[in-house]
Amino acid sequence: MELRSKKRHKAFTLLETIIGLSLFMGFMLNLKSNLSSVRQDDLAQVEQLVSVLKTRGLSLEYKGTSFGNVVFYSPPRQANYQLKYERNKIWLNQDGQGYMPLLFDVEAFKTKWHDENYTLDLEVKLHGKVIKREVVFAKAKPLKEKQAPKNEG
């Protein structure tokens, strides 16, 4: 009688495979939630930028562009403001003096003004994702011309 030698193949058991897959899935879910929280933070920061541009304390009115920067005028503050993008940051600069950093780690920033409906389109790229927002501004009040007093006589 011939005895056959049993060759044992080295392989993962079902239990080891299930443990490995569950660890992998846990890692992937953790990674997804971290990426999701970064995305939520980015959206919140862009919304904060929009709220600064729309704040009543500034009541910004669009004036035009200067060297690629959007220029606003604030009647309550009687000052000009520039929305600047440089060194991966978006700044709000007052008359070339003080500045307020609004967003950090910005990869790209584009703006487009629409005269017909007083809106500013913002396109911000953060962490590889592009976030677009439309900011609606109040129409600037036209300046009233002063009339010369009437001579009655």
Shape verdict? rod-shaped
The neighbouring-strand order within the major sheet is 1-2-3-4-5
Taking all Cα atoms into account, the compactness measure Rg is 30 Å
Mean of residue pLDDT values: 82
How many individual helices?
1
Number of strands: 8
* Helix fraction by DSSP (H/I, runs of at least 4): 25-40%
Low-confidence stretches: 143-149
Instruction: Say what oligomer this is.
Output: single chain
Q: Span from first to last CA?
A: 143 Å
Portion of residues in beta strands equals: 35-45%
The largest sheet is: 5 strands, antiparallel
How does the helix and strand content classify structurally? alpha+beta
N to C succession of SSEs:
HEEEEEEEE
Report on the structure:
This protein has 153 residues and is of the alpha+beta class. It is 27% helix and 37% strand. It contains one helix and eight strands, in the order αββββββββ. The protein has one helix at residues 14-54, and strands at 61-66, 69-74, 79-86, 89-94, 99-103, 106-114, 119-126, 129-136. The strands form two sheets. It has a five-stranded antiparallel sheet, with helices on one face. A three-stranded antiparallel sheet has the order 6-7-8, covered by helices on one side. β7 (119-126) and β8 form a beta hairpin. The longest helix is centred in the first third of the chain and has 41 residues, at 14-54. The chain starts with 13 loop residues before the first helix and ends in a 17-residue tail after the last strand.
